[in-house]
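Appendix B, example 12.
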Amino acid sequence: MTNLPAEIVERFYLTLNGDIPIEAFEKWLYADRTLEQYLNPDDYLDLISLGFKKSGAKYELWKLLKKHIDLADFETYKLRNLLQEARLKTERLPQVLVAFYELYCDGYYFLQQLAIGYGLAIQVPQVENTTAETWDELNAMEKKALLKSLEQGLDDEVDLVLGWLESGKIKLTGEIDEMGRYMYDDFRTQGDRD
């Protein structure tokens, strides 16, 4: 891993997370030569010679950039962003809650309350007087009512997980085990887990 300035790491994270389009990253790469002084010549050459417009460019860029970031920090960054977005209750709240469920299913078991209590409620909605089996089958009023019913306690659950991340009680490793599950170190007390 390369020791990069925070603003470059942030740009890498935003690009890898899809918040900065690959085209914008390419323009920045060619316009701002700051990165050249931090990467070894071979790595910099690999980056500037990447065919950004060809098929598979995102995957190739991921492979090149991940050599220069801390994957544990990147995973923590992504999870924090999801938690912050849940707290803000943006229009993407249903997708964010489902993302918690998917992350839980993929190994982040410390997200159980957010996953089962909120994400699963969106994934498989149990709304009275409807035959809808998915979020997309709900009408606008049903969606609004379901989200309203989930407001109680959501901020507390989000704050709890953010607290675990910030205190170091949960440390994401950026690694995946042989079963394809995300790995993390859990330093919570039994009381924190209950």
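The chain has a mean pLDDT of 93. The radius of gyration is 20 Å.
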